[in-house]
Every structure is written in structure tokens, then in C-alpha cells.
Amino acid sequence: MLRSLYNWTLEKAAHPHALWWLAAFSFIESSFFPIPPHPLLGLMCLAEPKKAIRFAAVCTGASVLGGLFGYLIGWGLYDTIGAWLIGALGLTEAFPVAACHLREYDFEAILIAGATPVPFKLLTITAGFIGMNLVTFVLASIVGRGLIFMTVGVLFRLFGAPIKLFIDKYLGLLTTLFVLLLVGGILAVTMIDTGDDEGASGPCSQATEVNPLA
After folding, report:
1. Per the confidence metrics, is the pTM higher than 0.90?
2. Residues 6+ away with beta carbon under 8 Å from 179
3. Residue 9 has what pLDDT?
4. What pLDDT is stored for residue 115 in this prediction?
5. Measured distance CA(147)–CA(152) in Å, rounded
């Protein structure tokens, strides 16, 4: 079934309108959608390796714009929409920890979230809620999102055919690894700096609440 779904998705990824779908998924994933655009980007790059860098650039630009939308939700719509989204995504406990890290590490926190499986939408909404400097937020988002998406684009552009053969052979294993990375990123948000019950000492280890625009 996984193989059939993979082949069907690959056909759709090569559709003339697939670029618009990639942009849409990249945009909404940065603010509220739970599914990341990475699989679709990879499949589109597999289908047309010569356009891989173009696909990655679209993914990066749309993701940064989506991050600004997430920032807007946190800045002006948190009470009506943002809090509900954070809860629906199961990130309520991670929210004060994320806010603490943004205040402590600013640019670096957004950069790490943008380039790793840590849920980027959590950081975009939180950044707006605490009133993070907008220029810093945008620059960090461009670097972080560009790092992960453009790396994919360049790799597929250079090694498209061999990578496709590798994925065809190890699809099940790669799917499992991707899910584990995604879950690990979510857990990292809630566990980082917490330590154990007796020795938690990180600056954000005891964060349980957050005030806006502090």
C-alpha cells in the first residue's frame, strides 16, 4: 500500500500545478498545518531533478511568508485563534518553553527551528505573541528554511537519479526515519533544558507561563 501511495503521489508531484500545491503546503505548514512540505518537495525533485533548486526556492519563500502569517496570529489573534491552534497541535506545554528560548536566544532559536524537525509553526506563533523583532524573525526564517530546503534542492539537482534509486529501494525505512525525526523534534521542544527532577538548571527549565510583548 505504501508503494502504491508513493507512486500515486509521485505522479501528482509531476503535475503542472504541483508547484502551487508545494507553495500552499509550505505556507500553511509554517503557521498551522501539521504536515510538513518536505515529502512533497522530495517527490517533485525526484520527478524533475533539473527543477529541484527552483522547487526548493519556492518552498523556502512560501514557508517564510507562512511564518509571517504565523507571527501575525501570535501577535494579534492569539486569544481567538493562536491558543486554539497550539492546543490542537498538542503543543500547549511546549509554548512557554518556546517563548523562553526565543527571549533567550532570539535569532538562533528561529534558525534551529527552521532547519530541524522542531515544529516551525510553534516558533512563528510564539514569536508574534512575545513581540520578537520582526526583522530578526524574517532573517532567521530565511536562513533556517533556506538551509533545509535548498540543501534538498541542491542534492537532488546534483544526484537526482541515484537518490531516486536509493529511495525506491529503501522507501519503508526512510519513511520510518522521517516520522521518528518529526516526533523527536516535537519531543525536543518539551524536553530541552528540563534536566531531571532534581537538577534542572537551564534558563527555560521551569517555564510554565508566558506574558506577551515582554
Report:
1. no
2. none
3. 52
4. 65
5. 9
